[in-house]
Amino acid sequence: KDKKAPGKSGHRYWKNVGLGFKTPKEAIEGNYVDKKCPFTGNVSIRGRILQGVVKSTKMNRTIVIRRDYLHYIKKYA
């Protein structure tokens, strides 16, 4: 469901990516352009959806996520 919303210089392209994600207000009303953004660019969300705590955003367009999980060790069972 691609949509166009009026912006400062005409129409702005944004889309609903589905999977329960709401399109951010910045993507609809903002003025940034990012071809790798799933809401305003030409990228689709596929594969697994990660869930965790963001630890670092130092890299460009990249984040480091901490995921907590339990690891079974037979010795301590």
Automatic annotation (TrEMBL):
Q: What are the recorded GO MF terms, alphabetically?
A: structural constituent of ribosome
- Phylogenetic placement of the source organism: Eukaryota, Viridiplantae, Streptophyta, Embryophyta, Tracheophyta
The record's Gene Ontology cellular component field reads: cytosolic small ribosomal subunit
The Small ribosomal subunit protein uS17 N-terminal domain covers 5-50
Annotated GO biological processes are:
translation
- Database matches in PANTHER family: 40S RIBOSOMAL PROTEIN S11 FAMILY MEMBER (PTHR10744), 40S RIBOSOMAL PROTEIN S11-RELATED (PTHR10744:SF9)
Recite the UniProt keywords alphabetically.
Ribonucleoprotein, Ribosomal protein
- Native organism is Noccaea caerulescens
- Family recorded in the similarity comment: Belongs to the universal ribosomal protein uS17 family.
Superkingdom assignment? Eukaryota
Name this protein carries in UniProt: 40S ribosomal protein S11
Q: Which InterPro entries match?
A: NA-bd_OB-fold (IPR012340), Ribosomal_uS17 (IPR000266), Ribosomal_uS17_N (IPR032440)
